[in-house]
Design a protein that fits this description.
Elements: H1 4-9, H2 19-22, E1 24-31, E2 34-40, E3 45-50, H3 58-68, E4 72-74, H4 95-105, E5 113-114, H5 115-121, H6 128-136, E6 149-150, H7 163-172, H8 177-186, E7 190-193, E8 198-200, E9 215-218, H9 221-226, E10 230-231
Parallel strand pairs: 1-4, 5-6, 8-10
Antiparallel strand pairs: 1-2, 2-3, 7-8, 7-9
Helix pairs in contact: 5-6
The chain binds a DNA duplex through α5, α6 and β6.
DNA sequence: CAGACGGCGTAAG
DNA sequence: TCTTACGCCGTCT
């Protein structure tokens, strides 16, 4: 009985609620920005989108079928909460897409990282634009926090639900958008501490602890490097 | 299979 | 400083 398919189809509580094990199902629930449609397989949440106007959600289901290749049935059962702990099922994604989503999921709440940072973290430093493409199609927004990925200059950049939504989500997580915007305006991309010789991304937990007297702004990773700084091991700014 | 298409980055003007 | 042009690269058609 080691066959994984049989194992999935023959759990101890067969008969109670078989449907979700055989087909993917969806329901509506409340997310941080309002009502969302949440689809899931037996493995986890597969797809999240804001509710559409259509009562049957035919558009959502058609899109699901096109992208996931499986039909989707309504389910009134309990819906998993939409947060960072929600188990997701990304089997429909390519390895590159999974890597991008995994790295994105590692960005702490209230912090931001550039698209280029994600590209570097997945080992494809030149695939910056492809990272954007992946995140634009993120199957599980709000769970995998693609709203925490910004442009290299710290400006928010685009978001599948609109840039305003991106700002709202970040603000709700405690990001100091005014502070980040000030750095962007000043062309500051990295913050160093002249006591440690370490440079951080502006939203890094450690960058926030540098006192005014010791804060050294940098306009590029190269500038920080030339000044003899090394990159923070936590936010890995690529210095 | 070739070509188009992007939630980007950055040099150049 | 602010635009614009162009390179980059994984997907989709």
């Amino acid at each position: 009985m080691s066959d994984p398919l049989l194992a999935r189809l023959d759990p101890p509580d067969v008969g109670k609620d078989l449907t979700p094990r055989v087909v993917d199902t969806f329901a509506t629930t409340r997310g941080p920005l309002g009502e969302v449609l949440v689809a899931r397989s037996a493995e986890g949440v597969t797809y999240v989108r804001p509710v559409d106007d259509d009562a049957d959600h035919t558009g959502f289901r058609a899109e699901y079928r096109r992208r996931l290749g499986r039909p989707l049935l309504p389910d009134d059962g309990p819906v998993p909460a939409i947060d960072a702990r929600t188990r997701v099922d990304l089997r429909a994604c390519s390895p590159f897409e999974r890597d991008v989503l995994d790295v994105t999921a590692s960005i702490p709440a209230g912090q931001t990282r550039p698209y280029g940072w994600v590209a570097r973290e997945v080992g494809r430093p030149a695939a910056v634009r492809a990272v954007g493409t992946v995140l634009a199609r993120n199957p599980v927004p709000l769970i995998v926090p693609c709203h925490r990925v910004t442009k290299a200059d710290g400006s928010l950049g685009r978001y599948m639900l609109g840039e305003a939504a991106k700002a709202r989500l970040l603000a709700a997580e405690g990001a100091d958008l005014g502070r980040l915007a000030a750095f962007t305006t000043a062309g500051v991309v990295l913050i160093g501490s002249d006591t440690t010789g370490i440079a951080c991304l502006p939203s890094c937990h450690h960058a926030r602890r540098i006192t005014d007297a010791h804060r050294v702004p940098f306009r590029s990773a190269a500038a920080a490097r030339e000044a003899g700084y090394r990159g923070c091991r936590v936010c890995r700014p690529g210095v």
